[in-house]
User: What shape does this take?
Amino acid sequence: MRSTRGLGLPLALASAFAFGGSGPAAKPLLAVGLSPLHVTWLRIAGAALVLLPVAVRHLDVPRRRPLLILAYGVFPMAGVQACYFAAVSRIPVGVALLIEYLGPVLMLGWVRFARRWHVARSAGVGAALCVAGLTAVVEIWQGLRFDGVGIALALGAAVCQACYFLLADTGGEPVHPTAMIAWGALVGAAVMTVLARPWSLPWHVLAAPAGLGPLHWPAYAFVLWIVLVTTVLAYLTGVLAVRLLSPQVAGVVSYLESIVATVLAWLLLGESLTGLQLAGGVLVLVGAFVAQMSTPGPKAAEEKNVLAGIERSVQ
Assistant: This one.
């Protein structure tokens, strides 16, 4: 058990690194003229195409668990990204990011107060430290604008992120996690097709040169990176990690994505880090470490069965 738990943390870090690379990689695509919704559609639709063989191998899943697959595709797959990009069009990115990352905290609150399950104290303390550290990382006090609709959209992203951690096989036959990802991507792609209207996408810009720091590739190369690395690889490593770690710990470790995104922006985009941001990053790491120290409570086995289908959030 201890050895498998030790493997879970490196997998969680790999997933966080993969997910954290989506933001910097998307910037060149936005710079060549793609809209945020078009980038989101390319990401989810591309992942659905790559994972199509997995879906074909599990054709019985939509028949056995239609509501689960529908909810997974609508909320964790499409909902998080759609709400987030809509939010950043009205409020600062840092504010939207911080509100979205309240998702794991909402998940802990739901498990503790709505379902009345035991939540390890260290997981709660770790979540609080991560929120405090993330506040410094994103510098929430910079350019804060109180837009009610924008804040509501960011909260919608947080709720969808919490759903990501809470959705699981609560009854009936279980769904293999890779099958859930594949079918969720197909549902998410269908939802994003309605929202993004890809027939209006300027496809010719995908052949245009795009730059990310020292990297200068055709725009389609960044699309491939976002699809293969920051979506497919990120989800698969996240699934393996969350199978080895508890849902509470996996939720808090997700905050490491913000650190990865910040460091990559510093290395590739030349965005400088202040001393306070670095201190916030350290606090996030401390919070994740504290969460790792959580021990199963008396209802741990029940929670594991209910939350066994958890996968990692889409940014």
